[in-house]
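Page 42, continued from yesterday. The earlier attempt failed because a stray header line got pasted into the input along with the sequence. Redoing it now with the clean sequence only.
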Amino acid sequence: MTAPLIIIGTGLAGYNLVKEFRKHDQERAIVMLTSDDGRQYSKPMLSTGFSKGKDAAGLAMNDAAAMADTLKIEIRTFQKVSKIDCVQKQVFVQDDVLEYSDLVLALGAEPITLQMPGSEHLFHVNDLMDYHAFHQALKTKKDVVVLGAGLVGCEYAHDLAAAGFNVQLVAPDAQPLSRLVPVACGEVLIPALQKLGVTMHLGLSANAVQKTPEGVEITLSDGSVLTADVVLSAVGLRARTELAKTAGLNVDKAIEVDRQLRTSDEHIYALGDCAQVDGLHLLYVLPLMNSARALAKTLAGQENLLQYPVMPVMVKTPTMPVVTCPPRDTSKGEWTIEGQTPHLQALFKDSEGKLLGYALTGDCVAEKMKLNKELPVSWL
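This time it went through. Structure tokens are written below.
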């Protein structure tokens, strides 16, 4: 009997890959391994759940049994993969050893943990089970401190404030979204969040968290102390690479793959937040979806090269819309900004006037489709 295709991970990357693959091949045996309960959910919706009144069960779309039945696959939940043997093409899972024909790593990324006293008291929300724990912790509480003013930090601050929580946002950055948009575009979020009731502590970082009978105390870098019921850390993600490293696969910021999503081993692939495609490590949904479609074809015998189209990032802060398509890190050029706050259009152009990226806020988000047509067709 031919060994199955094994996929490690039942997040957005893993499940979308199987959905796409079944469009091409209904028969190949597939085994999915996951360290959690395997419920299907949309990870981007984790930062919108409170304002919609959703608990973890409300965000879940299907359980593992339903997904297994729909996709005609085997799903093993709460499984810890300890080792990959590339030579024997085996995966070691607790007390079991599974052989594979091809192996896909859809391991995702894990939250960066702040190294400071009391870090064990921080909540992180990176999956549905994390969301459940955070939601339970806030059931009878109202005061939340959010650490981080990047994409996820801003979305959570907005969502929690819109749901009626008292939110304080702490970040070392001078303005929100500092890695995604130019300064002026990030600054438009400050009054928008404040209008919702968010108290901003920008230019400061958390130095320590201490548990108290009433909740927690957070000591900031200027010596001031905040009190809250719960602290959510949203300071960034790091690709899960340890399993790949111990297997001898090439790893940089993430697991290195080519444009066929193939690792340094010809029978092992990777996609999603754990993968670095031809030098690009993009922790967003659209790159993941494009990767799933491309890899599904390759695994079905229709080898093709992944193409990244224009992939704008929508920031889920509905009271102040923001959309950005950042230029590549290696792009040379400069930003020009037009409009009047909070309705701004920022364009990143090279020396020849060629558009390489943009950021839009407020009413200017309506220009998204027009600008998408002016951007390079593909990043790869």
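Notes: The mean pLDDT is 95.
Reminder to self: strip header lines before submitting.
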